[in-house]
Amino acid sequence: MDRECVSALPRVCEVLAASGGSLPDDTSLEKLLDWFTELSEAGVSLLEACPCLLGFVSAVVSNDAASEPSVLSFTLKLTGLLAASEDGFKVLQDSVLDRVFDFRHWQAAGLWEDPCIRIGWIQGLRTMLQHSQALDFFVQADFTEPLLQLQTDTSLFVASAASQTLAHVLLLCQSVPSPEGRHRETIPVETDGKYSAVVAGFCDYLKKSLVPKEASQLHGSQQVLKLLAKLLTRAGPPLRDRLLLTVSDPLEELVTTNYSQLTLPLMDVILAAHSCGGGERVARLLSVMLSARNPADLVHAAAAFLRSSHPDPDNRARSAGVLLLPLDVITGLALLGADSSADQHRSSVMEQLRRKTSCVSMICISLTNVPQVTSTAPDCLPCSPAEIVSAVLSVLRLCSGDSPSSSPGCAEVLRNVTGSGRVQKCALDALSALSSSSGVKVLLVEVFTLLIQYLNSPASDPSVIQKSYQVLVKWVDVCADLSDVTEQLREDLVQVVRKRVCDVRWEVRDSTVEFLGHLAAAPASLASDKEKARNALECLPGGRCATVPLLQEALQDPEGYVRASSVSALALTLAPSWQQGAAPPQQEAEIVTRLLEILSQDTQGFSRRAVIRFFVAWISSCSSPSSCSLLTQSIPSILSRGSADLDWEVKVHTLELAELLLDRASESRRHPYAVTPDRTSTHARAVESDPVSMLNSLVDQGVFSALLSGLVDCDRPVGLKACQLLIRLRDTVCPLLLGDQDVSDALVSGSRASCELPGCGWAREVRRILGTATAPRNVHGADGLGPEDRGEEEEEEPAVRVGVCDALRRLRLDERLAVLAQSSDHVHNSPLSLLQDILTVSRTKTHLDSQLGQEVIVDCY
Amino acid sequence: MKLTYCLSGHPTLPCNVLKFKSTTIMLDCGLDTTSVLNFLPLPLVHSPRLSKLPGWVSKDGTINLEKELKECAGRVFVDSQPEFCLPEVELLDLSTIDVILISNYHCMMALPYITEHTGFTGTVYATEPTLQIGRLLMEELVNFMERVPKAQSATCWKNKEIQRLLPGSLKDAVDVWTWKRCYSLQEVNSALSKVQLVGYSQKVELFGAVQVSPLSSGYSLGSSNWIIQSHHEKVSYVSGSSLLTTHPQPMDQSSLKNSDVLILTGLTQIPTANPDGMLGEFCSNLAMTIRAGGNVLVPCYSSGVIYDLLECLYQFIESANLGTTPFYFISPVANSSLEFSQIFAEWLCHNKQTKVYLPEPPFPHAELIQTNKLKHYPSIHGDFSSEFRQPCVVFTGHPSLRFGDVVHFMELWGKSSLNTIIFTEPDFSYLDALAPYQPLSMKCVYCPIDTRLNFHQVSKLLKEVQPLHVVCPEQYTQPPVSQSHRSDLMLELQPPPMPYRRCSVLNLPFRRRYERVYILPEVLLSSCGCPGRLPVLSYKQSQYFFGDGC
């Protein structure tokens, strides 16, 4: 712990105890508590390190009437933290612990009404309850009752905290730490007299409050069910059995009363009970939940069951049936076959589907849970995944209004789903998830046809079009062989993409361009082709040649997002030709020119970032400088424009490009048959051969200038990255130059690898650090005004040349790295700063109060 | 008597006659031009292909109509001046019509046939934009026909015995004997001279018995719905209305409340097509074609949706890098149409009205013209031919592709798959329109933009205004034939709407409760037998009688 903090803390405690209202902001106390918690977790004994805290707690609780509620709440939490260790607990027990947690005292003082006091009390208790002595204290003080009352507190935060604390207490009761504190042992709840009262009290509470007596108590029941589910999941056998025994009857009552709002929490409890071997009674309740409720609740319960991944074949089959029934009814496809149990619900499901809200909600739940349904063992499913895909396709057709349902009496239902974007999106998600199911590839053509229809439809919402593209990519991904897709469909897809890339809505253009990129990245092949696997884009008519012009056109798009997406998609599309060194020179030149324009002129940062990433990808893919000569020529422009960008992410990406070039520079001198070693050793070996020419090459490409400008950049991530790269360069190159030769030779040699620093911009700052700046001239003229005052620009100094290694050594890179490695707000966010802020605000407030008093007097007169 | 005579079977080109309170009122005067699809196109420039088509002879050779009918692309077309299907004129004596109320310029195209050839002596009521733009459309139609005169008149095929033996759509064409050639410019002028201009919400008294008043319907410049009311009864006539925010003044819905009967016509012809989505499709197909080096042909009317299309393109051109692409609008009335749209400020939506006070032209096509991005020409001859450069976008009529400058572009561009024709007008089946141009290589895109009320909107409207009874074309009471499963594409009301079809006569279900009667004091005194006692009024067989009440 910082000595300055130790010395400031007593004064802060005094200030807080005296006038807690004068705090820098609302979060100060939270920050202070976080700091104490960090110290405590780091093993610092707070009471030993900061003895003033005990005094502070005593002072606050003895003068509670004068204390701010927020300070009182903080004190309660702090006391819990101090008492969380057994030593601290002992110290406090002898002094203030009873007083602090005496809730009756707070009630009598009228402070309990304030939720922040209640939450302070609860959280203090929760923090303290880490050892058996604390638990004994809790039991002796009989805190169970108030904690149970707080479960239904008017403040949701208080109720939630009380619920968590109660769960913590009960779990602690069953496994208190051993006196040595080394391991936890399970104490049989029934037999342990000390804690049985707590458990019994809770069980009584459960019995009373689990079943709501009136609608207003539904929320309370929900909370209790959530708490119960948590306990059943985490509790060991004695407590769990006791709880199960207690809640069996109320649960049964709840299951039969059909409270829709309680379906999900109730299902969680039953599933938790079922998972821990709840016995036949729980199994029966689960069965009732999955069969005898109204259809809307049934689908929720079935979905919850399937999501729980419980390996219970009967119930999984039943749940799958429940979830498939709405799809069966609406599409008229016999998904459930001859399942007679479904027939009893068919009419009530139809009734629900006729109502717009319940229809959309029910269909969406069914569709959302299709992946869970298909993950069920095939023998538990009433139909194959392919049939489910057919049903989803059918739903999508119904949504577009193009086809009638084959189900009788579905005209009204049809009206509810026609044009429903929500159903369409759920169905498309389901279709996406189903792409990896077994045996669904036979429907590839149907899926493609429908998705192209959706992409083509003027009625499709941009988000529906985006999802359709995503599903298409997913299906292309899983179908390694695109020969199943007819030539006509592939042609249709190209046509629709051509149209959508010109769409009025930028979102659609953006997702179309993204789709082209994804397609270029998706591996696929045509079975008929003798060629090895290619990307999916090349399996379309026209292949890459057809799409690159579309993407080039999209580079001119008025929307920045589209430009950025088209740059990324171009990178993915052109990557194969870069690797083969076969990009058409004309096209390459056009693209590079346009990208450099975007980099220097585009007003949107994301487009410029995408351009730099594009060049990084290109250089990474480029096998040799000769195969991408245009790119090599453009590197100085890219680096200079990227480093001069206003967007810090562009600058960081530019430094990544510089890093790549550093790597490339070293690799280019590597022995062709060398085994690829780790980066540093490769670098070192390459550099060994001719470090000076390597440095000169980096200087010529503009890498060194980019790194230097990054080093003095005002954005910390840029400076940090540049500094790291410069240190790497210094550590690998400069020792070599100094190693074998004597220093004077090295300096001569180093002077051959030199760099020119201009007299303006970032270089001026670098020159200042290097001490090569010319002496400051008297810039003030006879009129006493500086150049800025006179509206003149600062005069540019003449350029100077500096040795690279010399500069690297003199830049004090290690010092800079230490500063840059710290977060930019490390000073502002330090504990000392917090303590000083509290003290400063307190002083200022005292000063202002005295001034205000005078002003008031003046005003009176 | 409150009777409706239904003279048109076309739900969006209505022509109904209402007999109400001893007045006879014609509601709209729509001209069904779909009949022209049975005729061969009229090329502006000699077309070797069309001039060499083989004549039609029945398979057994017994019927030879080589002169009248030509075989083209596997179908048979009438080779004469195109003819239009008129409203029914035999159902009642049209000379008894007192007034004709016009709701929008598309629904008045049959006016010269009624006013000039039936002995009509009444008055026609319409708003000023309706009259002016209606005049432009009529003049354009006359111009299209007169530019390519055809002396030959085909009548033999109309013979019932022969017609039933004809192939394809000619056999199924109905009322072919009522089909008429286009009117002349003189008839147009004469018909339009009978138009009396009215403003929105202006009340016009008809013989002291009935008051009629137009309301904004939001569909096109000056488009109106009509309220026809007596002291205690109210009939609303809703025709071609829109709730979308386009260029016209928004629809006045509240005035339609408390109607005894609401006659509902002119709903959207493409209920499944959202106009916004279609505009988007239009733009993307246009851009796609231009980028690929092709031309775009947009067959359209010279007024109406074209204003919205140009406005949409104004915003789209720059974003799609189409700044250098020329846009041509070719119509004999192109200049007038573009200029008229800018001067009817009081009939425009609020946003456009405020522009006028800035002052700025309400429609952005003015800027397109100023910057030379949009050029307009009266025809393909003259300046256009020297300034024409490709790839380009051409807006021209007629949307049926049977006459007008569009025929020339079909012949010029039809053979290249780089070009695209984009249909935006919903009045004609695009497949039928393209039939005489087959085989066709150019791409066809169907983007019908119909801003009129759809079934969902009309259901909400009717819930809002709550008429006691609704009268509508029978097509609205069942789902479209091609989408019989779509129960959402029909009117479901309680009580069910009263459907009508061509030649129906409906007795409107008024429940009379009150009637205002003016009695001359002399009549009253002479009817009174006992001094000091008032006579008793009774009503029998549409007549009032006084008894002496003693």
Automatic annotation (TrEMBL), chain A:
Chief subcellular location equals cytoplasm
Q: Which GO terms describe its cellular component?
A: cytoplasm; nucleus
Keywords per UniProt: Cytoplasm
Name the domain of life this protein comes from: Eukaryota
Q: Name one GO biological process term.
A: DNA damage response
Which region ranges are annotated with the description Disordered? 777-797
Family under the similarity heading = Belongs to the BRAT1 family.
Supply the source organism for this entry: Kryptolebias marmoratus (Mangrove killifish)
- Report the InterPro entries cross-referenced here: ARM-like, ARM-type_fold, BRAT1
- Where is this chain's protein located in or outside the cell? Cytoplasm
Instruction: List the protein's name.
Output: BRCA1-associated ATM activator 1
UniProtKB/TrEMBL annotation, chain B:
What keywords does the record list, in alphabetical order? Cytoplasm, Nucleus
For biological process, the GO terms are: negative regulation of transmembrane receptor protein serine/threonine kinase signaling pathway; regulation of cellular response to growth factor stimulus; RNA polymerase II transcription initiation surveillance; snRNA 3'-end processing
The cross-references to InterPro entries, in alphabetical order and at most eight, read:
Beta_Casp, Integrator_9su, Metallo-B-lactamas, RibonucZ/Hydroxyglut_hydro
GO CC, alphabetical:
cytosol; INTAC complex; integrator complex
**Where is the major localization of this protein?**
cytoplasm
Cell location: Cytoplasm; Nucleus
- Which Pfam family is an annotated match for this chain, by its short name? Lactamase_B_6
Write out the similarity annotation: Belongs to the metallo-beta-lactamase superfamily. RNA-metabolizing metallo-beta-lactamase-like family. INTS9 subfamily.
Q: Write down what this protein is called.
A: Integrator complex subunit 9
Lineage, opening ranks:
Eukaryota, Metazoa, Chordata, Craniata, Vertebrata
